[in-house]
Amino acid sequence: MLAYELEHGSFRIIFTKVIAMITIIDDIFDVHGTFEELEVFTRAVERWDMEVIDELPDYMQVCYRALLDVYREAEHLLPEEVGSYSIYFGIESMKGMVRAYFAEAKWYHHQYTPTMEEYMQVALVSGGGLFLAATAFVGLKDVVTKDDFEWLFKIPKILRGCQIVIRLVNDMVTHKFEQKVGQVASAVECYMKQYGVTEEKAKHELWKHVNDAWKDINEEALHQTVVSAPLLNMIVDIARMIGVWYEDIDIYTHSSTRMKDGITSLFIDPFPLDM
After folding, report:
1. Which of 31, 57, 167, 213 is most buried by a 10 A CB count?
2. 206-239 pLDDT, tens per residue?
3. Rg of the chain over CA atoms, in angstroms?
4. What is the C-alpha to C-alpha distance for residues 12 and 167, in angstroms, rounded to an integer?
């Protein structure tokens, strides 16, 4: 669980609302939006201005209004001295996610399977490593500075490792379901096509990249001195969280499975006192 301490209440409010928004946007890109609608939505997010809302179809207007409201409300939860730059970087990370989603939508629209290099350049962004870390930094108002955000957006080694873990673990667990419902090729399909190997061989090679990424994460978490330990630990915890979500099935998408059980045990079921 990220930032469970009592003093991080505003973090949990901001993080929860922003994750809810990106989940809705992800569904719009994967399921609901036509290619033309997605193009208009991407332009609207780039402009980040309520004046463009009438250019969107009705169902997107609901999402777009809520998106801008979430970040406006988040700024009010933050001290004035950190709110402006924190929200700026948070919004930039959201724009990056939407740009990456649209790049993947173009691949799917044109039935194009990218090379691994092309895929990873976009998919490391759409996987959400920078977005999740930036959103977490926004909520950690007492320990984060503008310099910390600038360090993060340069994609330091620890974040790069986190991005790789998120993207590849996600792809290896979800790719069969996503291909069945009609989504863009994952790292598994891209690797298989580029190198002419079986699914088993592709996954074996991708797991090597995941293991190497974890080595980078652990090394940087132990030896990095540019930013404070709470910020480094947040990035590590984000990578660890993905291991829970995608251990062997996608419990984020199929949330009536272990995700429901975990939430129930954490917040609803009483803790036994007679142990």
Report:
1. 167
2. 999 999 999 999 999 999 888 999 899 999 999 9
3. 19
4. 24
